[in-house]
Inverse folding.
């Protein structure tokens, strides 16, 4: 009634995008034809698409802010984007085909290796809404961890077999990590390569550091890139190379000599502080009273049983190790000399008579005297101050014999022989004595009495 008209809706599906022309004709109730009229419209049904999302840089770690450039097939509006759970903040792009912004790499687990962008809400100038699109990869930086090396100290037990191992995250099975060992003293290095296992772990072939300077810091540096060519940050771990064995410097006894059963003091000095030292003097155990964890150990020991042929005992020290676990070699050190002894044979059967007086021989034996050592004889009497002194050499069998002494003119009485001497180690034997009675007065006939005096 108001002159308006409306056609039934038409389905133009399948028509190509471009210009659509509507031409309308008609005649009224009097058969008079109206002039044909046209109207045009642009057919634009193609949805805008996301061409690419490019990150700069293309990798990073949680919390890093990176640049983002999104490119669309046509100019668009109202694009929103996320990297994982992090929103992209656009700084430019509205009504253009290229959008620029930045995003913070979101939190991740060790199992995560990458994040993709999800872009939604974008529409072209004709109102065509683009489909949600996932594009662009941000790789998460891989990481390497080195386990402590030999507990932080490489000792003599470890030095030929130094193992460096550790773990990775975001490395595929069979990727490689590279180890470089160096020290703080010289230019020596060792390089090795290991494959990452399925659980992310790696372990280098054992390295032999024999000949590397002792007491220096050894640094292990491990590098590697994962399956995406993303390099992990180089990591280092250090250990001190301490392979020098502790040594026994000295064993000092106080006194330095004695006889079986005597208890003497012992002081052991080591090159460094040690633990768990044990020591023996011959077959006798040293009892330590102090020393554990120090370089100076103090104790005592009983001089063991011995034979006359024994002249000395040495200490044997074992089991000692330093704070780094280096075990010292068994060491023999320090001498305890056994006290020598002298014996005097009976002199002239105990009586020096007129037949003996011009040829008094004093002899005897020794123990723990070397051949050619000297013993000294002093003869004295119980009546006056006369003495005789002589010297004799000890023979190979330990015996000695003084040159015969002439005691003519000595008063009858008791004669004492005192013999002293020190052996080849300067150890004095206890002085020994032997006595004999000097009786040289000849008996005389005092009288002859007959009974009866005649007959």
């Amino acid at each position: 009634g108001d002159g308006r008209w409306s056609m039934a809706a038409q389905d133009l599906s399948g028509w190509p995008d471009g210009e659509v022309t509507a031409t309308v004709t008609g005649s009224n109730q009097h058969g008079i034809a109206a002039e044909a009229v046209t109207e045009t419209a642009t057919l634009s049904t193609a949805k805008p698409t996301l061409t690419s999302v490019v990150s700069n840089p293309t990798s990073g770690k949680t919390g890093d802010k990176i640049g983002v450039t999104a490119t669309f097939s046509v100019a668009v509006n109202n694009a929103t984007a996320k990297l994982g759970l992090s929103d992209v903040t656009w700084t430019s792009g509205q009504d253009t085909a290229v959008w620029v912004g930045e995003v913070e790499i979101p939190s991740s687990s060790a199992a995560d290796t990458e994040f993709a962008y999800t872009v939604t809400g974008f529409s072209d100038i004709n109102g065509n809404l683009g489909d949600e699109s996932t594009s662009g990869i941000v790789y998460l930086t891989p990481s390497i961890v080195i386990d402590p090396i030999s507990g932080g100290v490489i000792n003599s037990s470890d030095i030929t077999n130094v193992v460096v191992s550790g773990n990775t995250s975001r490395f595929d099975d069979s990727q490689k990590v590279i180890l470089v060992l160096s020290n703080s003293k010289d230019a020596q290095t060792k390089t090795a390569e290991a494959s990452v296992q399925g659980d992310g772990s790696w372990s280098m072939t054992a390295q032999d550091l024999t000949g590397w300077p002792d007491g220096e810091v050894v640094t292990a540096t491990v590098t590697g890139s994962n399956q995406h060519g993303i390099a992990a940050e180089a990591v280092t771990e250090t250990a001190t190379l301490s392979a020098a064995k502790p040594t026994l410097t000295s064993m000092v006894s106080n006194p330095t000599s004695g006889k079986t059963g005597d208890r003497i003091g012992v002081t052991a000095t080591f090159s460094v502080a040690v633990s768990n030292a044990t020591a023996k003097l011959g077959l006798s155990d040293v009892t330590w009273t102090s020393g554990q964890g120090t370089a100076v150990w103090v104790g005592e020991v009983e001089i063991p049983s011995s034979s006359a042929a024994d002249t000395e005992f040495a200490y044997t020290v074992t089991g000692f190790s330093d704070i780094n676990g280096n075990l010292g070699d068994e060491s023999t050190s320090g001498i305890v000399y056994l006290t020598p002894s002298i014996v005097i044979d009976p002199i002239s059967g105990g009586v020096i008579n007129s037949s003996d007086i011009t040829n008094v021989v004093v002899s005897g034996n020794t123990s723990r005297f070397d051949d050619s050592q000297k013993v000294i004889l002093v003869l004295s009497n119980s009546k006056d101050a006369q003495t005789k002194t002589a010297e004799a050499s000890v023979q190979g069998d330990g015996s000695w014999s003084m040159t015969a002494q002439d005691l003519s003119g000595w008063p009858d009485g008791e004669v004492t022989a005192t013999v002293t001497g020190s052996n080849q180690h300067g150890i004095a034997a206890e002085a020994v004595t032997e006595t004999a009675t000097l009786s040289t007065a000849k008996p005389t006939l005092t009288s002859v009495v007959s009974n009866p005096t005649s007959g």
Notes: The first strand starts at residue 18 and ends at 27. The two ends are 223 Å apart (CA to CA). Residues 143-241 form a domain with the Immunoglobulin-like fold (CATH 2.60.40.1940).
